[in-house]
Fold this protein.
Amino acid sequence: MRSPQPRISLTQTQRLALNASLQASIAVLRTDAAGLTRFLEEQAAENPNLRLEPPPAPGLQDWLPRWSAVFGAAGMGDAADFAGGAAPSLIAHVLSAVERLALSPHENRISMALVEALEPSGWLGVPLAVIAREVKASLPEVEAVLTKLQCIDPAGLFARTLAECLRLQAAEMGVLDAAMRAILDHLDHLDHLDLLASGNLTRLARACALTEAEVLVRFRLIRSMNPKPGSEFSSVSAAAVREPDLVVKADGGGWTIALNRSALPTLRVEKAGDGAGLAAAKAVERMVDARNTTLLLVGREILQRQQEAVRQGPQALAPMSMADLAEALGFHESTISRVVAGASLDTPRGTWWLRQMFSAALGGNGQPVVSAAALRHRLARLIAAENPGKPLSDAALAQALPEETGVNIARRTVAKYREDQGIPPAHRRKRRPALPRLGQKGRAKG
């Protein structure tokens, strides 16, 4: 028998090799404003043909949309924020933080009363004197526990006023100097709040015994803060975003969307220098322009499809897939995925992650069609409205949701949605009944 002879054969394979330029383009496409700024700073440090200029300073009345309801309600926030209890995910976060404080039994009773008084905005909705009477404690004892709870992240939780909310954030940012204190101390006066909202620095500076330049610097710091830190616990909210990538503002009966130019430095290409450096600088410029153009196109399409969500909140999010958006815009689905990866959108209802606005459709076959995101939000609202002494089980929630949405879902799906939002099961949500809520004029709610 003859031994097998070695054979030589040729095969053809295809492989996509990403060159450095394409890899950089993909990286830039999926980078948020802060990441893009770091990338440009690195490129400018290596390439003398690139020059960066600071972002254009916001105008005196150029407040981010998240502030519109705050100023419109004299610093008390959107009325919708005070229409019920805080989000269960916010309560779960706060209770977990309270456990780590190792409070005494008496302090713990006070802390639970303070937690029950939290509003969806993250502010306290009940005066400390009422809480002190409820738990049979002195006012100084309640104030001492409140000071401990105000150290819980995000900064601004458990504030009693807009000024206190901003003061806590300024302290966390390390910018609570004498001038900032003077401005925030005056914000409890309605006329001074109006001065800040309108950008009337002359009168505000005079009232605070500061120069206009000192007020202007603090104005820009205050603008970056979040007047409603509790809103970060919405299922679509972007936590701790100082400068969003896109801004949505009301325009008559509709909405407009634009790039947040205050979030990015201005990129200049210097023509002098070696050819290789100039070519690389122009390549970076093209990548940034492509990223900004694509982000704005995607943002406009999302806004077109989610106008009701911007108007009403996450409970009105419509079903939307990246594939649908890609087809409408003529992009590949991977492009949509990359551009929304870390991008955020500032709206009058807070700052949202773009990626969280995509959600599958549920229902059909005789049932209403809703998005999974809207269903999760409505589930959270049901839990927020439950009797804390008798919280609803997952099975009870599965029975209640069809009355709220018209869509039937299984108990295990309810459990999954609840866990996705960081909401504990019923036995861990059981608490004593909540204190009476106070309205904006000091009257008890309900």
About this structure: Residues 13-18, 73-83, 439-446 have pLDDT under 50 and may be disordered.
